[in-house]
Amino acid sequence: MTDPAPTPDPTPISARAQVTAGPPYLADLNPEQRRAVETVDGPVLVLAGAGTGKTRVLTTRIAHILATRRAFPGQILAVTFTNKAAREMKTRIGDLVGGVVEGMPWLGTFHSIGARILRRHAELVDLKSTFTVLDTDDQIRLLKQLIQADDIDEKRWPARQLAGFIDSWKNRGWTPDQVPKGEAFAFANGKGGELYDLYQQRLKTLNAVDFGDLLLEGLRLFRDNPDVLADYQKRFRYMLVDEYQDTNVAQYLWLRLLAQGNPNICCVGDDDQSIYGWRGAEVDNILRFEQDFPGAATIRLERNYRSTANILAAASHLISHNEGRLGKTLFTDVGDEGAPVTVQGVWDSQEEARVVGDDIESLQTKGHALNDMAILVRASFQMREFEDRFVTLGVNYRVIGGPRFYERAEIRDALAYFRVVAQPADDLAFERIVNTPRRGLGDATLGIVHAHARAERIPLTEAAAAIVQTEELKPKPRKTIADLLTMFDRWRGQLETLPHTELAETILEESGYTEMWQRDRSPDAPGRLENLKELIRSMEEFENLGGFLEHVSLVMDTDSDDASDRISIMTLHSAKGLEFDTVFLPGWEEGLFPHQRALDESGRAGLEEERRLAYVGLTRARKSAKITFASNRRIHGLWQSSIPSRFVDELPADHVDVIETSGYGGLGGYGASRFDRIERTFDSAYSTPGWQRAQRRGEPQATRRTAPMIDGELVASETDDSAGYSLGERVFHLKFGNGVVESVDGNKLTIQFDKAGRKKVLASFVERV
DNA sequence: CTCGGCAGAATTTTT
DNA sequence: TTCTGCCGAG
User: Fold this and answer.
1) Is A337 a catalytic residue?
2) Structure pTM?
3) In A605-724, where do the E strands start and end?
């Protein structure tokens, strides 16, 4: 970047020193961070490794733009992926600038900013500005209707799958007419494309959009209305994008259109932390940045402020097994290299939970807070075992992720009532509550209303209103519907007169919804009533019902401000962006992590994404990371034996400790007793394609592998593990019983068990009969 | 219209 | 194994 021609500086030397030192908010930045903040003009890509102060750079950069008066708050576009990230940025900018940032109206998630723009120009994309944002559930229900109407076998072609296709098309920026033939054919023998088109039409009549539309329709808006686009291009003098590696094609196109106005776009991301490929994220966006934005400056942030040297070394070495990276190497100056990453093999998932539980208790007695620890699992089914164990031990825990507040049935019902009041054309909401609580309005009655609505192309509420004027319905349902409509009319009339929280309460009371749960004798009914109260309480911070509904559809996260000391349990995906002193990483087994499905469906790309997930997991740890793997795990109710994850092999031996577990009765297992690392003699032979192929095929002549290896070195070696077993030999396994050895591959045996079928097990877990 | 039984699936998740 | 969603009977 070239500086403007220097002008003579009249400031006295003494003061100039301060000028070079810069404003106070720049003072604590390291040189790279500072460059990332100060390179404000032109495209900039900041490759920010885990724990290198990414958010800090982003927020300071905004503060810098404001402080140097390059732009007003309203001229900066700053997009994030999650509401949490947006919120954090807001508060941190506030801290930097001092006081509240009055209006950074364009700091938010892609979706909320997309919605904001769409509402302003709704009529240009055939919508009214009151449009509803449908969530996945509504989306699927709508698609189901379309599939049924088209006489397609729902069993073979589930709505859920179509929703997936449509989502991915939207992620790629395709409107119905842009979907390639081959793609459209993937669903229901070619019906996919039509259904997408039909779906979009239905959305328009419902005055609704789905999440994908918030961007795709925005894209269409910009393309079809150059004046509107030009307006925003002019408005946004500086653009900042967080987590750029997670952007999909639609988001990329959207950004690129806006950036055509001026090139002051700064994208921050880390290709090594791209873990959302399965939902449309394109790592390519970040890899291609320099081509996309000519003259881009690339700045690497590699100085890590979070983790110990051991943890960084383990993570870096692991991720170096990926190809096609932009390449970063994290380092730290902190002298103390900390404890090595530990790897421990256990018998089964229960023992895994036990071992982790014991660790936690001993850390606790040493004064560590539970809040500083987390368990990061690959799949949520793994959580249960830990929860069970913690309940028995009396360890407080919290599960992060999982079913969210706004996804609960009672909340969705209540919201559906509000939606019908605020937006009469919202058929999906109407259908949801028309017979909740039970009013005796079933398919028969609804069918008639539906038919009329379809024939006249009007919303259900309108159709219902017309029908009650006729003799078409039997007296009873006719009166019920009439009464319901009267109630809705009354509530709509109160929109202006009653405060929205009171109106909400009134609606739930008068509709009989609250009563329905009061009468319910099931154990969770009181909790549901409590949730409804909470819902009303949370409405208070909004100005009106519309504002609240927008919040609910776009800001589906509820931050529980729970201050108590608890260990967190969550998936690796939801751990991104967080950090803990101690991180437990259970379930590092082939098939689970890397997940078999990722390998089957996405091959090498899938494996690399899994590896990045492992990298994300490790880099969450500040002081200590503890990996475990189990030899047996129950999946879908069946016991499966498993072998350690290849990621264990990919850790650098020098920074890892293998922990021995005593006590599976003489069955030498992983980590049992043998700590000695055998001198590496085969060196990189284990990572060659040939070896890997051999491993896959189980070729017997492949280098015999007798114990888990870390980075090609044998650890915990039970050198004799497989030595004695030969084909056809009868063996006994604690969990699977008796069986016959079918093949031998290093320490892995394939055994045909008499009862349990064919399994791959470790030689150390079987005995000769 | 409602309830019970059975088949089939069961990563990752934000908005 | 456990949950969900669909279909048939009452």
Assistant:
1) no
2) 0.82
3) 621-635, 638-641, 656-659, 709-710, 713-714
Tokens representing residue A296 in the block = 């881009």
Cβ distance A733 to A753 under 8 Å? yes
Question: A8 preceded by cis ω (within 30°)?
Answer: no
Asked if the Cβ of residue A408 lies within 7 A of any atom of strand C, the reply is no
Q: Which nucleotides of B are covered by protein (CB under 7 A)?
A: 1-2, 9-15
Q: Does residue A594 have a cis bond before it (omega within 30 degrees)?
A: yes
What is the rounded distance in angstroms from the CA atom of residue A738 to the CA atom of residue A360?
37
Which member of A39, A55, A82, A501 is catalytic?
A55
Q: Which among A252, A257, A205 has a CA at the least distance from the CA of A226? A: A257
Window 425-444 of chain A: CB closer than 7 A to strand B? 435, 438, 440-444
Least confident stretch, A346-360, A398-412, A725-739: A725-739
Measured between alpha carbons, how far is A36 from A300 in angstroms, rounded to an integer? 9
CA distance A566 to A373: 8
CA A160 to C1' C4, in angstroms, rounded, equals: 13
CA gap A660, A345 in Å, rounded? 8
A760: which strand partners?
A750
Told to judge if A56 belongs to the known catalytic residues of this protein, a careful annotator would answer: no
Strand B closer than 7 A to residue A559 Cβ: no
Give pLDDT tens digits for A527-550.
Answer: 888 888 988 988 888 888 988 888
pLDDT in tens, A139-160: 998 998 888 888 888 888 888 8
Distance CA A151, CA A145 (A): 10
Nearest Cα residue to A647 out of A669, A671, A617: A617
Instruction: Find all residues with CB under 8 Å of A293, minimum gap 6, and list them.
Output: A43, A45, A259, A263, A265
Is A243 among the catalytic positions? yes
CA triplet A748, A753, A754: central angle to 5 degrees? 170
Alpha helices in A366-512 (DSSP H): 383-393, 409-422, 427-433, 443-456, 460-467, 475-494, 500-510
Backbone angles phi, psi at A373, to 5 degrees: -125, 150
- Asked which of A214-228, A337-351, A438-452 is least confident by mean pLDDT, the reply is A438-452
Confidence tier at A706 by pLDDT (50, 70, 90) = very low
Please confirm, yes or no, whether A284 is among the known catalytic residues: no
- The residue lying closest to nucleotide B8, measuring its CA against C1', is A155
Residues 6+ away with beta carbon under 8 Å from A710 = A343, A648, A649, A651, A652, A653, A656, A658, A677
Distance CA A214, CA A118 (A): 7
Kindly name the residue from A80, A273, A332, A706 that is annotated as catalytic: A273
- % of chain A at pLDDT higher than 70: 84
pLDDT attached to residue A438: 85
CA of A445 to C1' of B5 (A): 27
Q: What is the DSSP string of A528-554?
A: HHHHHHHHHHHHTTSSSHHHHHHHHHH
Judge whether residue A556 contacts strand B, using its CB and a 7 Å cut-off.
Answer: yes
Enumerate the β-bridge partners of residue A303.
Answer: A331
The reply to whether the CB atom of residue A404 sits less than 7 A from any atom in nucleic acid chain B is: yes
Please count the helices (runs of H) and the strands (runs of E) in chain A: 30, 23
Active-site residue, A298 included: no
Size of chain A in residues: 769
Rounded to whole angstroms, how far apart are CA atoms A762 and A268?
A: 44
Handedness of CA A318, A341, A667, A593 (dihedral sign): negative
Nucleic acid strand B within 7 Å of A571 CB: yes
Bridge-partner residues for A626, per DSSP? A342, A584
pLDDT digits (tens, 9 = 90+) for A229-249: 999 999 999 999 999 999 999
Q: Is A674 annotated in the active site?
A: no
